[in-house]
Amino acid sequence: PASAESPRRYADGFLQVAVNVLVQRLPTPLWTAGGLVLAPKHPLSRVLHNLIVTYLLAEAHSGYDLPWMTHRAFPNVFGGARAHEAHHVHGEGNYHQFFLAR
């Protein structure tokens, strides 16, 4: 039933946001000649990441299957709207936000 699914849906949504915030705030580990260095993320790289992820999420949720979409350019990497819809209909596979997870 839908009521039994609701707490899990809220938890899933919260965890997605929490992971995104955590990933953007944590420093990037880099191997240098001196060993491991934790470097802060550059603000421009964070903006670029947000733009790309927003585009990919909008594309996956659009419901369109157009010839120039990323799942056509990289069919073994991105799932697109069809894979995302199949996940919601069947409830299995394609668990990632926009990548294929078979």
- From N to C, what is the helix and strand string? HEEHHH
The count of DSSP E runs of length 2 or more, i.e. the number of strands, is 2
Mean pLDDT: 77
Proportion of helical residues: 55-70%
Which band does the percent of strand residues land in?
5-15%
Helix/strand structural class: mainly alpha
Oligomeric state of the chains present here: single chain
Structure write-up:
The structure is a single chain. The protein is mostly helical and 102 residues long. 58% of the residues lie in helices and 10% in strands. The chain has 4 helices and 2 strands, in the order αββααα. The protein has a two-stranded antiparallel sheet with strand order 1-2. Strand 1 and strand 2 form a beta hairpin. Helix 2 packs across helix 4 (80-90). The model has no long low-confidence stretch (mean pLDDT 77).
List the helices and strands and how they pair.
Blueprint: H1 2-25, E1 28-32, E2 35-39, H2 43-62, H3 70-73, H4 80-90
Antiparallel strand pairs: 1-2
Short précis:
The chain contains four helices and two strands. By secondary structure, the chain is mainly alpha-helical. A hairpin with a 2-residue loop joins strand 1 (28-32) and strand 2.
Keywords, separated by commas or semicolons:
102 residues; mainly alpha; 4 helices; 2 strands; two-stranded antiparallel sheet; 58% helix
